[in-house]
Task: structure prediction
Amino acid sequence: MTRAGHHRLCGSDVHRRAFLGAAAAGAAALVGDVTGIRILSQPALASELRRNDRRCILLWLAGGASQLETWDPKPGRPTGGPFLDIGTSVPGVRISELMPKMAANLHRHTAIIRSLNTGNGDHGGGSELMMRGRGREGGLAYPDLGAMLARELGQADSQVPDYVSFYSETEGRNFSRLSAGFLGSRYNPIELTDKMALPDVERLESIGELDHRERADLRALWSKRFARGRDVSAVSSHNVAYERVRGLMASDKLFDISTESQATRDKYGPTQFGEQALIARRLVEAGVPFVRVARAWWDSHGQNFETHQELTPELDHVMNALLDDLAERGMLENTLVVTLAEFGRTPNINASLGRDHFARAWSSTLSGCGVKAGSVYGRTDDDGQHVADGEIGAGELFATIFQALGIDHEKEYHVGARPIPLVNPGIVPVEEVLA
Amino acid sequence: MAYRRPYRMAVVLALLPLVLAGVSASRAVGVEPPAADAAVERVIDHYLDAGLVERQTPPATQTADETLVRRLALDLIGRIPAAVEVRDYLADESPEKRAALVDRWLGSPEYVEHQATMFNAMIADGEGDLKTYLQAALAENRSWDQVFREIVLADRSGDAGRDAQDFLRRRVRDIDVLANDVSVAFFGVNITCAKCHDHPLVDDWKQDHFYGMKSFFSRTFETGGFVGEREYGQIKFTNTTGTEREAKLMFLTGVVIDEPQRDEPSKDERKREDERLKELAKKKEPPPPPEFSRRAQLVETALAEGQRAMFARAIVNRLWYQYFGQGLVMPLDQMHSANPSPHPELLDALADDLISHGYDLRRLVRGIVMSQAYSRDSRWEGDQRPDAEAFAVAQPKPLTPTQMARSMSLATADTESLASVDDADERAKRIASLAKTQNADLFEQPGVDFQISANEALLLSNSERIEKNYLSGGLVKQLAKIEDARELVTRAVWSVLSRAPSEEEIELLEGYVSTREDRREQACGQLVWALLASSEFRFNH
Result:
């Protein structure tokens, strides 16, 4: 099935690439979608798409963590607040005293970016922007980071989920809508809120194991007969979806941390955030390309310092444990861990001793896969009011994430005739933090 | 309702080539074009057959009657047919039986309900709800130009306007979005590529066109739940060379509308206006209409002779896509000169026919489903399946959430009661009531290039909601009472797939049941599940 005008219109050289030509029989507006499925029948080309099993875990600090109480402290300044800074294992780099564990290990895996100016201080708009690398524009539903990575790093017939998101607290959950957008529901996240397990992966008691399997075989047989002579991508996607069922049902055990050693569980700690980070590690270990673990609610309009006194040490502990565990297992080479939020917080301290939304000068970190450990990029001015050096936006951060994972950020998807690159045109990665 | 004529239309960019989708040099087709008053289905088959000759692609055969009935039912009334409806059709020996069935279904309340759901997804697209409005409009086969008027004018004076205004109300906060959504829904063009720069792919689209379309909505605002329009306000934009320009009131074809000069109000006047609006909102009254309405100008311009082809072609393409699963122009929002239709004469002929018949959508739909092209088989027996754009073979279309829910409900219902009903209308009502919309929320609205997700497969495989609603009573209970395995599986296939099973299929299914004699009712449930979860059920083919 070829789109009307498709070949005539798409000027991109993506079209001329051999592996797409091979899939042209089923080409669709979203060219790659179909290739993703068909590619598997061509082993030589399939390897081209498998990027050394690279993975990504996003620690999403929902509500907006304060850069001043984490990665970019300003002690002694009017905007500094009561906490001090401490030296880190990287000479000359100091972070908040609330993060002693990361401070001790900063040189091992982590790069800090202190110069985000993202321009959207609204929870909804900021989340959309920072989960997609661009704002809402062009009448297009852009896919979020997880969907793009599921698409780029996952495998079409994968037996594990390719995009899982944890968001247990209720605050802010609706601000942070995830979606595969124009990539289609194939790449939508499995979102876990109250239950820490996949939905519909347990066989109902009313049907036995054998019957469950054999009725599925009957379904497959019947559907295969139907598919003969109906070689179109929607029909094949139906059967691919059912072929994934048993694998997904088996992946239920990935969510059960009771099989982990007590030592490992202790390392992450008994908190929900810690346990979810441990599950995230189990998931990426099993081949899930993208997991988001959200921790809410950092939105400290009042009592900013109490909030961060509670949340920052937890982040410090869990992030350090996660990096440590991934490194011990030899997985950090292939796994990128990102800390990010919809925005940071105002340097100015308000009358309620809070900090408000602030998107003009804030921080993010990248650790592990493809990252130059111990690097710090960008600088804010003395009071943290403006970026003084190395200003970047959401797009540059996304380009950097893609680059770290070995994905060409200039790669284009096609929505009908429109070429849509992974990040907006002209945007380049921050080479300074890349290995 | 009387509408003022456009104030004055002046084609300013006289040299601008107005080559919009579909307008292109006529291709020699070797056969005389059909007469101007030819039936729509003849026009369709004439042009498509000529195209197939040119491509040297013989089309797929006409599909079997039972498949045609299923296709018509899903497309026209939004559910699979009950077995009895298919049987009646097969038994009917009248040569006019297809037309009779199409007319009956096109005149049914189920058609109104289904088409309103489809249009609501197409126009509102999840942002706002036009369902009630569309039901009323479709029930009286309101013309498409009238629907466009009512949605874009959001006139509060009648019931129609009240229900129709949700489209504008939900978008008015972002005029860029509003202008684009109107362009996509009613003119088949996405204009946002021309917002920040001249359109990169379409030579005849400049930033002026984007800001021109935006200008029609720039005075629209919301107050107290109503959509109003001001008398003043201009849009300025900075082009790529950094020059600031004032946007003209320009339609997509390049036509510019002159409007009366209006000075910007003073601060005091604005303040008084705000107070007046607050008063009205308190009294729950709509704001007064402007003397000069830019939105009314858009409606009049878009529907004016010489301009309206764009509007007509857009709805023709939308409906064509709905019924064929592939538009005459793809993508649906790229109907412009750089993306011509592979069937330009057909698109133009259908648009002309629609205009000359008062934008009567039912006439168009009837023509589509009566064509030979519509009733081709979806299976391709040859080597290489032809491009969808050739329309040589039918495209399997994934069911929409409502089609899916209603069909699952009807397929697994207790249909015993139908046997005793002789009155056709009464029976139709009973069948419709067995096809319940509940659980439609479990399924995803398919877009272009839809891929079915693993979540859906998991849901069907393991959800208690599926088990309880579709596999525990009705059909499964009835099947379990049937002693003869052959009869049992035949009944199951008829109920779920609306056709008779082949000998081979009977054997296969009998085999499944016979190995489960100790748990017959469960076996029936599993059998029904396998058919219900099959691709044959999931698609309109």
Q: What stands out?
A: The first strand of chain A starts at residue 55 and ends at 62. Residues 1-51 of chain A have pLDDT under 50 and may be disordered.
